[in-house]
Structure formats: structure tokens, C-alpha cells
Amino acid sequence: MAFGSTMAFMPHLDTPQYQPQNTVDAAPATCQSLENNTFQNGEELVYKIYYNINFVWIPAGEVTFKVDDEGSRYHFSAEGKTYSSYEWFYKAYNKLDSYVDKSTFLPHTSIRWVKENRYRLYDHVQFDQKGRSAQFERGDTKDAISKRGNVKLNDCMHDILSAVYYSRTIDYSNAKTGQDYPMKVMLDEETYPLKYRYMGKEEKSIHGLGKYSTMKFVPQLVAGNVFNENSQMKIWATNDANKIPLQIESPVAVGTVKVVLKSYKGLKYPLSAKK
Fold it and tell me: What is this structure's pTM?
């Protein structure tokens, strides 16, 4: 299991899982100024990750998302690691940092550290959103860079974390079931047109937290080492002003992963979605 894959979703370019319908042309809007009315400085969300083996859900690890307001920019971070009790099967530590312009929610710096068993990766990207380019450097560690280069961007571009937080700023109050929301994301020297589908409202029981009014989303995925061709990820987020992801379920190449909200603090609004 690729532990970092539970932090976000990516598009599947070759074999899309659905045909676009009721599509909102959100990609150009990501280049424009917008206002954050969803979250605030100090918000912290902790998720527990479960991995399914032979119909048994095993606690595998945790990932923590944080928001820091640094004046003209936001610093988004996501840090995940496996529990020691799970490391006999798989040992991982992933960290993502995204420094985002507050007026556009577009990143100017993205840094990713990956340690998964023996695999190591340090990936640093510097975005020039106006110049439509991104400079990157990659290697096993920050002090062992093995590749540098430039990627031309055909539009304003998100990284994984900025895409997640940007999606929370969107107003879904008038969304129609089956409506698609596109945006563009850069990962591993490639750019992808991502789409996620709004599937309507649903009452959902969340383990350890109770019952919530939620909005359900289904994002596209990239088939490969982690996801199969027909994999479908499901995301339930609070149907309130916070729009917090409560639970994520996704089959992967060798099982199923479930990510469940464990704790939260620093929310901008009361959690009114709780029943």
C-alpha cells in the first residue's frame, strides 16, 4: 500500500471512470482571486487510516492536516506515518508542505518527503504561475538531488494540498447530483486535469464521531501501482460551512483503505452537520 496515496486523489487520464456531465468550468477560475470563507489559521484535522486484510480492518496509521496563516500566504501541511504495530507489514512516513497565495489558492512552493519501506523521495517544486512554468528538483533526500528540470504549465496549476483546500472553498449549495468540478494538478513532473463529482447529500455514520449530514464526492483516480483500472474512491464531507472530509474509502491494488476523521480543532465554524 502506498501510504501517501491516502492523502489525496489524482485524475485518471487514460481510462476515465465516468463521462463528464453538468461540468462546471472551474479550471480558469483557479487563476482568479477568491475569498476563503471556510477555514482559518490553526485548523488541525487528524485522520486514522485503516487497511482491510481478509475482511478485517486493521489500524495502519494517522495523517494530520494543518493550516498556518503566514500573512500573504497559507502554509498547508499533511504529515502521515504508520503505527509501530503495523510496520511489520508496511512502514511509511510521508510529509507534504504547500505554500499558497491567499488571493488565488495557487501554490508557489511545494515540498514532498516520502519514506516507504526502502523507498525514499525528496521532491521540491517552485511554481511560476504567471510565467506558466515550474522548476523542480528530486532525489532520495534534500542533500542527494539527482534530477532537476522545468515543466511548462498550460494553465494555473495546483499541487495535491492546494487542490484539497481549494475544493473546500467552493460553494456547493446549488450543486446538482452528477455535477463535475475540474482543476489541474502537478505531481511527479506531470500535469493532470482532475475532476471530482458531486454525488448529492447523504446522512452518514462516522465511526467514533456519530451521525452527520454529508456531501458525497467521487474523484477520478490514476491507475497504476496503487489504484486498479476500475477503482472508485468515495469521500464524505460535512454538509456545513466547514466542509471537512469525514471519511474516505478507496480500493487499492492489494486491498481497501479507509480514512476516518479522528479529531479536529481550530474550526472556523461550529460543526453544525453533526446530528
Answer: 0.86
